[in-house]
Backbone:
C-alpha cells in the first residue's frame, strides 16, 4: 500500500459521493446528492488515497451547537469512512490525527456508528438519544396538566416557512442542538417516497412556539413522530396533546423525546412512556479548553483548577458567565479530553465519571455546576 493524505477540493465531489456509497454500503438519491453539493465545502474534507484512489475520508460541516446557556460555532465531523478493502490498517488513525490538527473551533462534535472508535481521539459521549413507545389507548393527560392549545395543521410549504424559525429558537441553550441547515430542511420536508419506510406522507403541526412532523404506519395504527421542536413548555405540552389524540392510532413511537423530557410527567401514568433504546448521541471533543469553558454557563458557582491531560486551567463561573485561564496551581480535578467532552454539554455527572475512574480528585467541585438545566438533544443528524 502507498497511502497518502491530502485536502480535498471542489472537483473531488463525485469521488467523495462514490467513496461514501462504497464505505457505508448505501445508494444516495439524486436529490440528496444535489443537496450535498449545496451543503458541503470540500476544503473541509481530507482524503487518504492508495495509489491515487480515495480509500478513506473525513470531513466537517460548521454549524452553531447549543451549549448550556447559549450557542457556539463548532465543527461537526462527518462522512468518516474507510473502504472495506483498506480497514484496520490505520487509515482512520491517519485521518483523525490530521483533522484534529486542522480544526480551528473551540469544540468539535460527531455522532458515532460504533462506541469504540472515537474515545482514543479525545471525543467523549456527551448526550443520549432515546427511543420511546407509548400505548396511546391508555395515555391520559393529568387533569391539571397544561393545556395551552394553539396547534394547527399546516402544509409542507407552511412548515418550511415556520419550522426553521422555531427550531432556531429551540436550539439556543438546548445543549447539543444542531441548528438545521436550509439544505437539510429542504431535503426533509420534500419527504421523498424512499424516506417513508412504508408509511404515509408527513403531516405537520404548528404552534407559535413549536413544530412537529409525523407519519402513520401499519394501516394507521402507529404514529411515528419524526420531528418535534418546542421553544417553550407550553408548545411542548400543546404539541404532545395533539400527537396523543389521533383516533385510529393505538401506539406512538419516536426518537425525538430525549432522557429528561417532561413528557411522562404530563400523563396520569408516566410508565406508559416506555423506553425501547437509549444510546449515545453527540460526542464532543474540546479543542480549546479556555474558549470552550467560557462559551457555556454553569448552573451553580464554580471555582476550580482542572488538569486536562497535563495542562492546568483555573475555571471560575456561574449562571452569568465564566473565566478560564492557564495556571500552575495544583489541580482539584484531573481528567482526560474524552471525559471533559462527556461533561461539556451537562448531560452527565462528574461524580458518575469519577466512579468509573475517568475523573480524579474532588469531582463534587464540578458535579452540579456542569449539569445542564435542559435535556441535551441534537435533533438533527450530521
Ligand atoms: C470505522 C472505520 C472508519 C474504521 O476505519 P479503519 O481505517 O479500519 O480504522 P483504523 O485501522 O485506523 O483503526 C483506528 C483505531 O480504531 C480501532 N478500531 C477500528 N475499528 C474498530 C472496531 N470496529 N472496533 C474496535 N476498534 C476499532 C483500531 O483498533 C485502531 O486502534 P489503535 O489506533 O488504538 O490501534 C471503518 O471500519 C469504516 O469505514 N466503517 C464503516 C463506516 C463507518 O462506520 N464509519 C464511521 C462513521 S461514525
Residues:
Amino acid at each position: 500500500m502507498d497511502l497518502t493524505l491530502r485536502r480535498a477540493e471542489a472537483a473531488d465531489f463525485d469521488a467523495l459521493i462514490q467513496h461514501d456509497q462504497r464505505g457505508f454500503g448505501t445508494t444516495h438519491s439524486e436529490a440528496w446528492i444535489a443537496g450535498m453539493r449545496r451543503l458541503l465545502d470540500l476544503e473541509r474534507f481530507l482524503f487518504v488515497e492508495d495509489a491515487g484512489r480515495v480509500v478513506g475520508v473525513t470531513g466537517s460541516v460548521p454549524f452553531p451547537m447549543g451549549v448550556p446557556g447559549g450557542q457556539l460555532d463548532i465543527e461537526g465531523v462527518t462522512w468518516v469512512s474507510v473502504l472495506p478493502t483498506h480497514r484496520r490498517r490505520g487509515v482512520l488513525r491517519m485521518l483523525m490525527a490530521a483533522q484534529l490538527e486542522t480544526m480551528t473551533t473551540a469544540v468539535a462534535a460527531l455522532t458515532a456508528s460504533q462506541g469504540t472508535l472515537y474515545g482514543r481521539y479525545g471525543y467523549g459521549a456527551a448526550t443520549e438519544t432515546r427511543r420511546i413507545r407509548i400505548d396511546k389507548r391508555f395515555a391520559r393527560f393529568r387533569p391539571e396538566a397544561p393545556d395551552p392549545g394553539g396547534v394547527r395543521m399546516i402544509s409542507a410549504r407552511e412548515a418550511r416557512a415556520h419550522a426553521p424559525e422555531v427550531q432556531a429558537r429551540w436550539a439556543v441553550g438546548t445543549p447539543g442542538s444542531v441548528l438545521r441547515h436550509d439544505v437539510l430542511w429542504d431535503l426533509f420536508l420534500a419527504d421523498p417516497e424512499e424516506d417513508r419506510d412504508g408509511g404515509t406522507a408527513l403531516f405537520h403541526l404548528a404552534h407559535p412556539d413549536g413544530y412537529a412532523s409525523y407519519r402513520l404506519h401499519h394501516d394507521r395504527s402507529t404514529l411515528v413522530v419524526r420531528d418535534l421542536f418546542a421553544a417553550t413548555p407550553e408548545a411542548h405540552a400543546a404539541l404532545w396533546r395533539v400527537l396523543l389524540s389521533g383516533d385510529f392510532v393505538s401506539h406512538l413511537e419516536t426518537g425525538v423525546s430525549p432522557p429528561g423530557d417532561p413528557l411522562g410527567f404530563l400523563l396520569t401514568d408516566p410508565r406508559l412512556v416506555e423506553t425501547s433504546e437509549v444510546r449515545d448521541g453527540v460526542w464532543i471533543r474540546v479543542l480549546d479548553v479556555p474558549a470552550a469553558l467560557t462559551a457555556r454557563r454553569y448552573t451553580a458557582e464554580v471555582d476550580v483548577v482542572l488538569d486536562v491531560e497535563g495542562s492546568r486551567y483555573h475555571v471560575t463561573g456561574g449562571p452569568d458567565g465564566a473565566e478560564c485561564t492557564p495556571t500552575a496551581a495544583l489541580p482539584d480535578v484531573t481528567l482526560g479530553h474524552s471525559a471533559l467532552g462527556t461533561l461539556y454539554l451537562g448531560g452527565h455527572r462528574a461524580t458518575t465519571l469519577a466512579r468509573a475512574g475517568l475523573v480524579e480528585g474532588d469531582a463534587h467541585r464540578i458535579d452540579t455546576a456542569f449539569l445542564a438545566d435542559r435535556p441535551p438533544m441534537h435533533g438533527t443528524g450530521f
Remarks:
- The chain is about 25% helix and 30% strand.
